[in-house]
Structures are given as structure tokens and as C-alpha cells.
Amino acid sequence: FPSVPAANLRPGAEQKVVFITARVHPGETPSSFVCQGIIDFLVSQHPIAKVLRDHLVFKIAPMLNPDGVYLGNYRCSLMGFDLNRHWANPSPWAHPTLHGVKQLIIEMYNNPKINLEFYIDIHAHSTMMNGFMYGNIFEDEERFQRQAVFPKLLCQNAEDFSYSSTSFNRDAVKAGTGRRFLGGLLNDTSYCYTLEVSFYSYILDGPTTAVPYTEEAYMKLGRNVARTFLDYYRLNSLVERPLAPTPKTR
């Protein structure tokens, strides 16, 4: 039977896009497992995944630094660049993956039929525990408050995600990152985050109970990131409420 295209993929339809990138720092291997969890969930037959595919378009670049990964580098590319400091002016010769992704994002931003609503760049953190996010600081108080909604919802869905460790900043050192650059480029309905997850463990039920992360636990965080988009868009009335209750993905 021929399948009917989702409303957001029909010719001329306005698209709401979620753009996700990972592994810009090659040594941060947990980011790949989180990204894998997001992808596996989105292409699954889970009822939430079907609703998300019907309403949103997901663009995912799971490895922004493939040459650095191949070489076993910790932070840099083949040519010794920390790619996550070159978003402002990436070179097609020296930073080709970054240049290509940035061009695609700018094309979508300039397309009146596309709303680029979320940009999430996935990393791993060498000293902090749990999963948490970095966001941007805006002069517009309402925009600043709206930006906090997604991480608060994620905190409700993922036991290992910490809203208390989530922070919003405009640190000059981070000016060349994807989150900071795109946060300044995109309009005020777009939200740009860095999603961090600990290399080590997450803490439950007080400061003394540390649970070591496993590959499955990282992928579970990815699944919970994906399902949080349904909560976000239900809250913002894109998705109708009468979706049958579904079990959590933990």
C-alpha cells in the first residue's frame, strides 16, 4: 500500500526542523551513544516517535569530526583545529564538515517555508556528573524564560538529567561554539543548546549514590531527549492532546 506522506513533508508545507549534531570533539564518545539513542527512537515504531515524525523534521549530523575520530584525537581535527571554536567563519578547506553543516543551517534559516526551532549539539563532560545543558543569555526576559522550558521538561523525563547543573551563559571563550554562534544568528523562536553528559556517572537520591554510565544508559538519555520534544510541542499546542498515553522509554 502506498503510504500517505506526513503533513510536514507534503509539497509546500511549512516544516518545523530540529537539528542535532554530535561528536565535534572526537574523544567525547558518550555523545555518539546519546545520539544513537535519539536516532533509534525516532526511526522506531514507538507511538511517540510516529507522532514526532508526523509533525517535525529531524536533521542529524552524528559525527562532525570524523577525521579526528579516525585518528583517535581527543579534541581536534586532522589539522589540529578545535572545530567547536570555528562556527563564526569555518573554512571549506580547513573545517569542511563544519562549513557544510553551517551552510545547510543558513539555507534553512533563509527558507520562509522552514522554521529551524531547535539546535542541539551533543558533548561529553570530563568533570561534571549527570546530563545537563548549556543555553544562551538574552536581553529579552521572555525569550530567556522560554529557553528554560525544554531542559525542565527533559529533567522530568530523564532521571539522570540535572536541571540544577544546567546553565545559561555568554562566556567569551565559548563564542565560536555552535550554541553561541547559532543562538545569535537564528530568530527568537529558535532554541540552541549544548547537551552535555558525564563521562563517568550520574547521581540519584542524594550526593552519595553515583551510578556508572553504560552504553545503554547513554542511549536511554538519547531516547528521553527525543520523547521530550512531544512534551514540548504538546505544551505549545502543535500536537493535539488526545494521543493515547504511552509508557516512558526508560
Automatic annotation (TrEMBL):
Swiss-Prot/TrEMBL cofactor(s): Zn(2+)
One example GO MF annotation: zinc ion binding
One Pfam family cited in the UniProt record for this chain: Peptidase_M14
Keywords: Carboxypeptidase, Hydrolase, Protease
Record-annotated Peptidase M14 domain positions: 1-233
BP GO terms, sorted: proteolysis
Keyword Hydrolase among UniProt keywords: yes
Residue positions of the active site: 196
Coiled-coil stretches noted in the UniProt entry, renumbered to this chain: none
Keyword Protease: yes
Entry's family note: Belongs to the peptidase M14 family.
Protein name: CBPC6 carboxypeptidase
Organism: Stercorarius parasiticus (Parasitic jaeger)
Protein's gene: Agbl4_0
